[in-house]
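Methods: example folding runs. The two proteins below were folded one after another, and each record is reproduced exactly as written to the output file, sequence line first and structure-token line second.
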Amino acid sequence: MTAHANILTPGTLADTAAARVTVTAAPGRLSLRARGDLSALETALGVTLPAKIGSRAQANGIEALCLGPDEWVLLTAPENVAAVEAAGAAAYEAHPHSLVDISGRETTVAIDGPRAVDLLTLGLARDPETVAAGEGRRTFFDGQTVILWRDAESKFRIDMWHSFAPHLLGLLETGCRELAAETL
């Protein structure tokens, strides 16, 4: 099991009239790679894996995001990671796959507020408006690979590697304050 190495203390980084940026508590996170008929694996995990890139599904305490034709990221409670790994291992003979605990790799940041979309456009390589609520995408923020989750119209999460977090969080904090200054 990968140890959680949250380099940042969860809490609010910036809170302005434009947007709020919050470092969240670290979820359990697993990378899944599999091909073919996924039914045995889905039964073992207890979640139907979305087939369309960017689609999300949730069941039995697992949230799955399809990142590619044979790739998903699974989020769960940290205390549930071992059970998800065991379920995957039990299905391996019926459906060979790769299921790896990557819980210690990333920091998650929540962004919400009336100008959340504007804040994201300051560094995001894609227009956040093209990601529908309830979907997610792998993309780039200021040249760094991130996973963008759109939870609602003006509510997002970004998963970023710990090593890039201080830089990207600095950009988000500065952008949040600059957008708030525009509204004065």
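Second run, written to the same file directly after the first:
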Amino acid sequence: MRQSEIHRETAETKIQLSIVLDGSGKCDVQTGVGFLDHMLTLFARHSLIDLSVHAKGDLEVDAHHTTEDVGICLGQAIRQALGDKTGIRRYGHLTLPMEETLVTTAIDLSGRSYLVFTAPIPAPKIGDFDSELIEDFWQAFSANALCNLHILLHYGRNSHHIAEAIFKSVARSLRIAIEVDPRQTGVPSSKGTLNS
């Protein structure tokens, strides 16, 4: 099975995260940040990745360190679970509607990190969650998964819907990219590697 487990401990956070790529979307998430838990649950359900996250962070400061460090750990776990990436589709993209909102995401598990985040979120906060942390989460994820990730908001009014559409669309794009292609032999790259 393609799976991995990450432990990260700093002066700011302590995180245990595990994934099973070929799962069914089972989710056990406890970060102490309610909105992040909601987004990670959506991510698991739509990617069909089994996800367990237990995090303790310096929430007396704010949710920044916890959110960013969970993104780091999720990216590392994806990279680790994919191994040498033999047989995967590598690319995935999806345009996802969420009521009045429309978001497109595209991902390349290239072994090189790059984030393009063109998704302005109207409200500075969603509940007590700082909206700017959504971009920070995906920046941390892409840097540690070593993937190209493009997130484009075509239009949308409701900040919660925009955030939800982003997480669902990335999950669905990733689900396509990590899928094993029965026609693919070896690594899907003319370089012969996707890890550098």
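Comment on the second run: Strands lie at 3-9, 13-20, 27-30, 50-57, 91-98, 101-108, 114-118, 125-126, 129-130, 148-155.
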